Amino acid sequence: MVDWVNQTRPFTAALIVPTGIGAAIGGYAGDALPVARAIASVVDRLITHPNVLNGAMLYWPLPNTLYVEGYALDRLAAGDWALRPVRQNRIALILDRAIEPELQRRHLQAADAARATLGIDVMAAIATDQPLGVSLKLAPSGASWGTITQPDSLLRAAARAIAAGAQAIAVVARFPDDEGDLAIAYRQGRGVDPIAGAEAVISHLVVREFGIPCAHAPALASGPALADVAPRAAAEELGYTFLPCVLAGLWRSPQIVRDRADWQASDLTGGAVDVAIVPASACGGAAILHWAATGTDILAVEDNQTTLDLTPAALGIRPTRVRSYLEAIGWLAARRAGLWAGALAPQPAPLLPLQLQDPGPDPRDPL
User: What is the pTM of this model?
Assistant: First the structure.
């Protein structure tokens, strides 16, 4: 007998929390991981990005979740690129020439630990030929961003890694150690992550140029333990490096297929996404705009406040608004079960019976 229930396509959600915008959930060190774990349990496939899954020394394997860099997500949503799931990737580690020898050694040890303890294939460690020169900025909106003064040095190192057989790239760049007011506020759980925007610039550059999975971990000098670190920022206080979560994510990050002629029936395209979940004030990203334009359901989460004011109304998007991720999870469970979500909530007005509509003239009749 045919199991018709299992003939339906996998119910696929994309969870997006833009980086560096002070999101109440997802603006800290892996604090959106509980949301991702819960959503992954009520969908068949979850697509999300490093800002959601990275927790510095902490991470959580989710078998039905695809770890996809933000620029690749944008191109997926636009219909330009496809994703091909893999069993594992060979990962090359690129270290910024500016990293001091002791801090460099800590990152090499983290990579060796991932090889020996987790069985992750870190196949090479490559230094850039020049210091990358990372600088941090703050936009008028309050979001963080940054620049690198030697982007070509990073691209040359990535090209060497790919030529050596790398299928994914982990980048570690030396970031400024200045403990300014923004960094202190972040560690106390009340500010924007000052380095997140610059991290996105680095990974976007590699993915845009080479179409290969990439994620970044900052290299920072380890300071003394502080007594008032907020739990949401505490994952970044546990060791000398943020690299473990990046290696764990890249291990099974799907390969990017840029040429449509190479797409296979089993590849995941943007049209396979049933719903995209995003903070209600951060709907201006390219992926959300593409998916909204093609009719994909958008779930706008009101409780996850950010420094932005890019609301659905301002952008002409008609989302489903939910108060919290808990409500979003209920909505997703109903959708996956094939239910009209409105049947699970009290109606703001009496539910009126359907009225039979007059069919009007037959369009086939001659005038």
Answer: 0.90
